[in-house]
């Protein structure tokens, strides 16, 4: 009984740790001998991602990360509006900014202390077959190697072509023409540490955008949209990069810590399950980074995959549960693609009509608060809601009203992630993680099922006489208004894909 996790970025690391915590031996494979410790890369870690990492013992990431609470938006140098991020009653911040390199370092320490995880570095995946089990072919400095496992989670990133090709899958979609220049700088900029700043068409990058994120250690990440023929080397050697940076920060001393140029994509594989292989993270979906939906959705993939594989390997569920991984996480990928595509259409208009609309919205937003709601610099990452999942038992009295306003979450109910609230014995989500959790309101007897009385009825909006069935990933599987043993059994069977 084992799972091969291919790729040891944060998504693969999270998957490996979650599997090991459930007693599943893991072979963690990565092509790199050592990590690259430089560069911010994915920096925005959302509250529910932090919650998962804290449950694994990486609570220090919350403490080390820089918490920002205000998002400011400008047009041609004039501030249009600012938004305060809601706290949602959680002990965790809405977001922290922390470099991917530091996240990987902390998760590596946890992996090194986990005897069920066998790390194989310097193993580049060259092929994959499924003759009953998963057989992974790897190239190493000492020659070819073969790794066998019962299942695999492919977290090999955007460049995981060998895995996708072996599975007959392709990252279909579009690539955006403009490039984006990213610089990490270290500077003393008082008042900037708790704010994300987004500039539309600033005088120092006319016709394009600039995004500024604070990071720990007096570092700031600056993203410029630049033309597709942009030459970073020429700009550095000619002094234009210094001019570009000083146009934003002024004459204060600074140090360039890291810089790179990226092209953004919106691409999805058609299937996130191929036999005994589940695809996760950038190996399965690529989206533009505005809104921080890349890494955060990849961690959600890992959470979904890990508990389902553990249940299948223990013989507690079958093919239906594995297939639900595709049903739930591909729907999440489609949602993220739709949200980020709408953002990119606003940031980088594709035709005259889109350009005219954007200019109209930004011009009106200077004086009209209603127009501010139409300004799209990225809807920040949020959980996906499994209200349409085959595992979710619907409740007609709690219909899902669709995507809520930016910064809001739906009220608790079937398919919704439990709110992150504290109870007498700890955090409510932590009570769910060992297995399925049945919560009951006072006086309810589920008939043969062990249950815990709901200590947070107000936070859940639970009604008298109800029982709430919660999955191991802390999503609500069912809310039962007449919780007989038969109804609980039926909801549990549905939630395990039976």
TrEMBL record:
Whether Oxidoreductase counts among this entry's keywords is yes
Q: What GO terms are given for molecular function?
A: monooxygenase activity
| Every FAD-binding domain range | 2-334
Q: Which UniProt keywords apply?
A: Monooxygenase, Oxidoreductase
The record's annotation in InterPro entries points to: FAD-bd, FAD/NAD-bd_sf, PheA/TfdB_FAD_monoxygenase
Highest rank taxon of the organism: Bacteria
Q: Has the keyword Isomerase been applied to this entry?
A: no
Q: What is this protein called?
A: FAD-dependent monooxygenase
């Amino acid at each position: 009984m084992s799972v091969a996790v291919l790729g040891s970025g944060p998504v693969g690391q999270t998957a490996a740790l979650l599997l090991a915590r459930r007693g599943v031996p893991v072979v963690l494979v990565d092509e790199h001998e050592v990590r690259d410790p430089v560069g911010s890369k994915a920096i925005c870690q959302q509250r529910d991602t932090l919650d998962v990492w804290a449950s694994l013992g990486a609570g220090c990431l919350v403490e080390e990360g820089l918490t920002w609470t205000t998002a400011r938006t400008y047009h041609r140098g004039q501030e249009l509006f600012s938004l305060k991020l809601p706290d949602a009653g959680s002990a965790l911040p809405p977001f922290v900014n922390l470099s991917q390199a530091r996240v990987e370092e902390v998760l590596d320490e946890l992996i090194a202390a986990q005897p069920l995880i066998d790390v194989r570095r310097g193993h580049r995946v060259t092929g994959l077959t499924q003759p009953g089990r998963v057989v992974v072919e790897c190239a190493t400095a000492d020659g070819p190697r073969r790794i066998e496992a019962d299942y695999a989670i492919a977290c090999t990133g955007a460049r995981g072509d060998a895995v996708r090709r072996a599975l007959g899958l392709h990252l279909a979609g579009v690539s955006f023409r403009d490039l984006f220049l990213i610089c990490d700088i270290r500077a003393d900029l008082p008042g900037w540490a708790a704010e994300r700043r987004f500039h539309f068409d600033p005088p120092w990058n006319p016709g394009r955008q600039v995004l500024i994120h604070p990071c720990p250690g007096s570092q700031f990440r600056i993203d410029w949209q630049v033309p597709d023929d942009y030459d970073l080397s020429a700009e550095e050697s000619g002094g234009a990069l210094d001019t570009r940076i000083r146009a934003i920060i002024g004459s204060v001393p600074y140090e360039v810590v890291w810089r790179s140029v990226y092209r953004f994509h919106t691409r999805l594989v058609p299937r996130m399950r191929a036999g005994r292989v589940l695809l996760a993270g950038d190996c399965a979906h690529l989206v533009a980074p505005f809104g921080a939906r890349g890494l955060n959705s990849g961690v959600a993939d890992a959470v979904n995959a890990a508990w389902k594989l553990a249940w299948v390997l223990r013989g507690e569920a079958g093919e239906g549960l594995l297939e639900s991984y595709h049903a739930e996480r591909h729907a999440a990928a489609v949602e993220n693609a739709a949200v980020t595509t709408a953002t990119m259409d606003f940031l980088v208009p594709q035709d005259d009509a889109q350009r005219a609309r954007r200019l109209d919205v930004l011009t009106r937003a200077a004086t009209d608060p209603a127009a501010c709601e139409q300004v799209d610099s990225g809807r920040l990452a949020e959980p996906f809601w499994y209200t349409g999942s085959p595992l979710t038992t619907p409740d007609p009295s709690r219909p899902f009203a669709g995507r809520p306003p930016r910064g809001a979450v739906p009220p608790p109910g079937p398919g919704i992630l439990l709110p992150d609230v504290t109870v007498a014995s700890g955090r409510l989500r932590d009570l769910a993680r060992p297995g399925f959790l049945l919560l009951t309101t006072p006086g309810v007897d589920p008939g043969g099922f062990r249950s815990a009385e709901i200590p947070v009825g107000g936070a859940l909006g639970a009604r008298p006489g109800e029982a709430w069935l919660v999955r191991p990933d802390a999503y609500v599987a069912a809310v039962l208004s007449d919780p007989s043993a038969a109804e609980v059994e039926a909801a549990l069977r549905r939630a395990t894909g039976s």
